[in-house]
Amino acid sequence: MFGSASQFSAPAKDGIDVPSYVRAHSEVQAQFTRVGHATRLADCFETGGLRLKLPNAEAVCEGVLINTAGGMTGGDTARITAAAGAHTRLRITTQSAEKIYRAEEIAASVDVAISLGTKSRFTWMPQETILFDGAALSRTLTVNMTECASAMLFEMTVFGRVARHEQMGLGIFRDRWRVRRGDKLVFAEDTHLDGNMFETLAHKAVGDGARAVATFLLVAPDAEARLNHARELLRNAGSYCGASAWNRMLVARFSARDPHDLRQDAAQFISRLMRTKPPRVWAC
């Protein structure tokens, strides 16, 4: 997906040059292993404002990422690295929506890297990312998995706080996905929106007025067999959406003028397709 407009340039506040040492640089590195019938945290490193909590560590281990800074601004970085060992069952979400505030020059950066062992099952399902007016975000999601592992990935992005009648003007949004299965690249996608977001998303070929977009990707041995069921589940959705499948993958796209409709549609779709409840924090 690609959209472009005028070059983004966020004016500095009164010419003040913000020093790099006041930027937030956060990181979480976690390793998970199978212990009996359950998945357990084997090792974890945390620095900066990111924390990983495990309120549900049963057969399926549920990790919740918390950004204690309450959001990100230009120049802030966040890196999440997770390694799921053989036969693990792991789901990672976020405590709340991630807020990306105005950038002066450098974009905020979020880098997520996941590695999956033999017959592991992994879900990446953070709550939505909200871009404020003047925000700039560069986000990367990389997954390296074995042939028999399964990964379900979901990301939702909201352009402006619709509930407060805000419109996102100038900004940058770059989103890069790379999935390798058995060391072979099987999914690659880049999104680049640059300029006046409200005007860009108003174009029919880009968003047709959408204020929120989302991508769902399932990489699993039985992914293609779920296509008819996926399309049936999307039939009565309030958001504009569709699904396709190929090469043991299933992709569903969502866009909506009301982020609430998209979030509700996606949560119901994922829970029914995957036959599991959404993360508990999604109900908060």
UniProtKB/TrEMBL annotation:
User: Where is the protein found, in the record's own terms?
Assistant: Cytoplasm
* Swiss-Prot/TrEMBL keywords: Chaperone, Cytoplasm, Nickel insertion
Q: Any stretches that span the bilayer, and where are they?
A: none
Q: Which organism is it from?
A: Candidatus Filomicrobium marinum
InterPro entries in alphabetical order: UreD
- List the molecular function annotations (GO) for this entry: nickel cation binding
- Summarize the subunit comment: UreD, UreF and UreG form a complex that acts as a GTP-hydrolysis-dependent molecular chaperone, activating the urease apoprotein by helping to assemble the nickel containing metallocenter of UreC. The UreE protein probably delivers the nickel.
Q: Which GO terms describe its cellular component?
A: cytoplasm
Can you tell me which family this protein belongs to? Belongs to the UreD family.
Q: Which residues form the signal peptide?
A: none
The uppermost taxa in this organism's lineage are:
Bacteria, Pseudomonadati, Pseudomonadota, Alphaproteobacteria, Hyphomicrobiales
Describe the function of this protein: Required for maturation of urease via the functional incorporation of the urease nickel metallocenter.
- Name of protein: Urease accessory protein UreD
